[in-house]
Design a protein that fits this description.
Pfam families: Methyltransf_16 (PF10294). There is one protein chain. By secondary structure, the chain is of the alpha/beta class. It has one domain: Vaccinia Virus protein VP39 (Rossmann fold), CATH 3.40.50. Helix content is 28%, strand content 22%. It has seven helices and nine strands, in the order E-E-H-E-H-E-H-E-H-E-H-E-H-E-H-E. The strands form two sheets. A seven-stranded mixed beta sheet has the order 5-4-3-6-7-9-8, with helices on both faces. A two-stranded antiparallel ribbon has the order 1-2. Helix 2 links the parallel strand 3 and strand 4. It is globular. The C terminus is likely disordered. It binds S-adenosylmethionine. The site of S-adenosylmethionine has 22 residues, from helix 1.
């Protein structure tokens, strides 16, 4: 943990990770205090492959469970006009700091959004997001129904939803909860860290470890979709 410098396109994003943000009840360090490798994967993916199919210029972007906020900050660098980074309240000061140190305060704001909370998501009633980003949020099966509820609330018909995840033994079960809520889950092709990509120079992106990550497109409920088999 500390200060990380992440190459995104032709720019360096500075990300401060937190060392002392703990849950006041359990005393455990909150998982959003530091950058997870999925956020590096999603940042690189959107800066290379994602931008080929989605023009970030003047788009509005929401990041759920943002942690340190790397994917959302990447979207701002790529031209998004408004980015909202969200997480639980305790993590918001760290997110605000990461927005400020990168000089992106004119385009990026930070808000609390607790999955499943009507009160929390009602603050987003007037928002109209073109893209929702999530990295490493398919983590706790108990949270997936709440995440699905929030996704249904904040997206509109045309909103694109991209998520990167480390593929763990229980990732498929987490995704199945979203499928049971009506979402389609499609694994997107990714060529991360390869010679064709503009890798962000992070050492974990060796070919072996990249097999452990996947990028997904989440299709909205009630649209024809196919669920990709991901956890063989
Ligand atoms: C594994 S961390 C990933 C953090 C960050 N996206 C990354 O990839 O570096 C999971 C994130 O989801 C957030 N999260 C978990 N449950 C949540 C909930 N019910 N409402 C809002 N955020 C939640 C956590 O606070 C944390 O930031």
């Amino acid at each position: 943990m500390g200060v990380r410098e992440i190459q995104v396109a032709d720019t360096t994003l500075v990300i401060h990770e937190l060392e002392d943000v703990c849950d006041s009840v359990t005393g455990r360090v909150l998982t959003g205090s530091w950058l997870w490798n999925s956020s590096l994967v999603l940042s690189e993916w959107i800066a290379t492959q994602g931008r080929l199919t989605f023009d970030f210029q003047d788009k509005t972007v929401l990041e759920l469970g943002a942690g340190a906020g790397l994917p959302g900050l990447t979207a701002a660098l790529l031209g998004a006009s408004r980015v909202v980074l969200t997480d639980i309240e305790t993590l918001l000061p760290g997110l605000i700091n990461n927005v400020e140190v990168n000089g992106l305060g004119d385009r990026v704001e930070v808000r609390q959004l607790v999955w499943g909370s009507d009160e929390s998501s009602s603050e987003f009633d007037g928002f109209d997001f073109d893209l929702v980003l999530m990295s490493d949020v398919f983590f706790d099966m108990e949270e997936m129904a709440a995440l699905a509820k929030t996704l249904k609330k904040v997206r509109r018909k045309e909103t694109v939803v991209w998520a990167a995840s480390e593929v763990r033994p229980w990732t498929g079960e987490c995704l199945n909860v979203l499928v049971s809520e009506g979402f389609g889950v499609v694994e997107l092709p990714s060529q991360l860290g390869g010679s064709s990509g503009s890798g962000n120079g992070n050492s974990f992106m060796e070919e072996d470890s990249l097999d452990m990550f996947a990028v997904f497109l989440l299709l909205p409920p009630n649209e024809d979709s196919h669920v990709a088999a991901i956890c063989n």
